[in-house]
Amino acid sequence: MSATCQKLEVKDIGDLEKLVAENIEGIESGLQVIDSRVLLGHAVIDLIGLDAKGALVLIALDFTASEGLLLRVMDAHSWCLEYLDTVRPRALFILGQRPTDAFVRRIKQLSVLEVDCVKFCYLDVNGASALYFDLVERLQRAPDPKLEAS
What is the mean pLDDT of the chain? Predict the structure, then answer.
């Protein structure tokens, strides 16, 4: 008997939010969702998580990489910078398709210490649904010593 596999579609961002929250450990061991639809300043972040080290993770979801998605994360991150002594967020973009080169260039310009860009794929394998995550881009920077001293 051969295995059957087909791609399933996720059409609603709310459904994607639930799927990602239920399968978040598939992105990174120890990553957990602590809240959803959080307003940070004027930006709504889809999911807020904590990684295994206890760092805050801003999780932005969309089916495509867009300027609006990037701006939401930039606004939320800027708000977090006002509370730098207590909040040091990572940014995690979860997308339905591979981001454009232009989008990747833009996330490289963010002042966030860690940025991950992940593509999701929702599959049916032998009648069982599964959510698969593919890391597209990972950026890690050393902390700015000037910011550490303040």
Answer: 88
